[in-house]
Amino acid sequence: MKFGIIKERKNPPDRRVVFSPQKLKEFQEQFPKAILKVESSDIRVFSDDSYKSEGIQVSEKMDDCDVLFGVKEVPVDNLIPNKKYFFFSHTIKKQPYNRDLLNAILDKKIELFDHETIVKENGARLIGFGRYAGIVGAYNGFRAIGLKSGAFQLPKAEILDSQQELIEQLQKIELSNIKILLTGNGKVAYGAKEMLDAMNILEVTTEEYLNNTYQEPVYCLADVLDYNKRKDGKVIDNSDFYNHPEKYESNFMRFAKVTDFFIAGHFYGDGAPYLFTREDAKSADFNIKFVADISCDIDGPVASTIRPSTIAEPIYGYNPRTETEVNFKDDNAIVVMAVDNLPCELPKDASEGFGEMFLENVIPAFFNNDKDGVLERAKMTENGKLTERFSYLQDYVDGRE
């Protein structure tokens, strides 16, 4: 079987890749029957020569490959019929801007495996860049604090080479006794936590965070039942919240009263209560001054996130009184960092980590008859039709919704 790494063609350019040269070499060593090939690219974080030096063929033509790996959406004109493709298609939530892409995939009888659909039997994702979003998001949040306060200056993450370089920059800054709230319990939150821990910021319990004052910066890692409560007062468990979000209401304001810097690393599920609303942000008790919204749900659970920001212009201000965007240096502004493609700022580390996950969780399935069902669960299209698992997308494909 021949596997190919395709060139990223989406704009703005994405320098990430599914496999680094080193990981591709490991792939070859573990599965010697595999034939590997890399499409030439002038934007990839790893040069063509770095693949060639590992003995990997680099080519302009990928038509002879059976399986093609990319990161972002492949432009319709570049899709090769009758191939297996892996990339983030951004179609599983019926995103209207990619309906034509999914139709083209069906027309060309492509088997599509979306990175987001590569899951365990219990639905937990096996592949993703979440950790790197957390790493960069936390860094960008501290950079925003420096830009607003003038107390320190941090370089942009995109000009630094690795997580270690981000950490070294953060270790140079001095913070006042701010309180930092980090929400979430997945890869994003733990990526951000790595950065807080590397800065030697003291982690405290929820109760300590809410009730104590400190002479140094501290942070608290809060999960869904810390900032949501059942309307009937019962305390059950996380799965009850995930299964019955309508029975809950936000309890976030108790955190907002004492928090200076909020890092949103949670996953927001449909039907769950908003963490804080625009009205909440108007309250005299609302103390949050900086928001690094890594989850980046627009006009949703984090009211100050009214639009995504960009790597070029990563921060903006939100005036809670007027509910409008203002200059982040405005005295009344909540400073918002809401870049929606954070891992792009750390392409080398993100690519190396992604390849590691892929080699461990996906590639073996091609050589063991997919004994764990990873490929079967992930496959969205086959023979010009949606697979049963993704048949819910039919109305979307047909333009009926």
TrEMBL record:
<comment type="subunit">
    <text>Monomer.</text>
</comment>
<feature type="domain" description="Alanine dehydrogenase/pyridine nucleotide transhydrogenase NAD(H)-binding">
    <location>
        <begin position="167"/>
        <end position="338"/>
    </location>
</feature>
<dbReference type="GO" id="GO:0019878">
    <property type="term" value="P:lysine biosynthetic process via aminoadipic acid"/>
</dbReference>
<feature type="domain" description="Alanine dehydrogenase/pyridine nucleotide transhydrogenase N-terminal">
    <location>
        <begin position="4"/>
        <end position="136"/>
    </location>
</feature>
<feature type="binding site">
    <location>
        <position position="240"/>
    </location>
    <ligand>
        <name>NAD(+)</name>
    </ligand>
</feature>
<protein>
    <recommendedName>
        <fullName>Saccharopine dehydrogenase [NAD(+), L-lysine-forming]</fullName>
        <ecNumber>1.5.1.7</ecNumber>
    </recommendedName>
</protein>
<keyword id="KW-0560">Oxidoreductase</keyword>
<keyword id="KW-0028">Amino-acid biosynthesis</keyword>
<dbReference type="GO" id="GO:0004754">
    <property type="term" value="F:saccharopine dehydrogenase (NAD+, L-lysine-forming) activity"/>
</dbReference>
<keyword id="KW-0520">NAD</keyword>
<dbReference type="InterPro" id="IPR007698">
    <property type="entry name" value="AlaDH/PNT_NAD(H)-bd"/>
</dbReference>
<dbReference type="Pfam" id="PF05222">
    <property type="entry name" value="AlaDh_PNT_N"/>
</dbReference>
<keyword id="KW-1015">Disulfide bond</keyword>
<dbReference type="InterPro" id="IPR007886">
    <property type="entry name" value="AlaDH/PNT_N"/>
</dbReference>
<feature type="active site" description="Proton acceptor">
    <location>
        <position position="72"/>
    </location>
</feature>
<feature type="active site" description="Proton donor">
    <location>
        <position position="90"/>
    </location>
</feature>
<dbReference type="InterPro" id="IPR051168">
    <property type="entry name" value="AASS"/>
</dbReference>
<comment type="pathway">
    <text>Amino-acid biosynthesis; L-lysine biosynthesis via AAA pathway; L-lysine from L-alpha-aminoadipate (fungal route): step 3/3.</text>
</comment>
<dbReference type="InterPro" id="IPR027281">
    <property type="entry name" value="Lys1"/>
</dbReference>
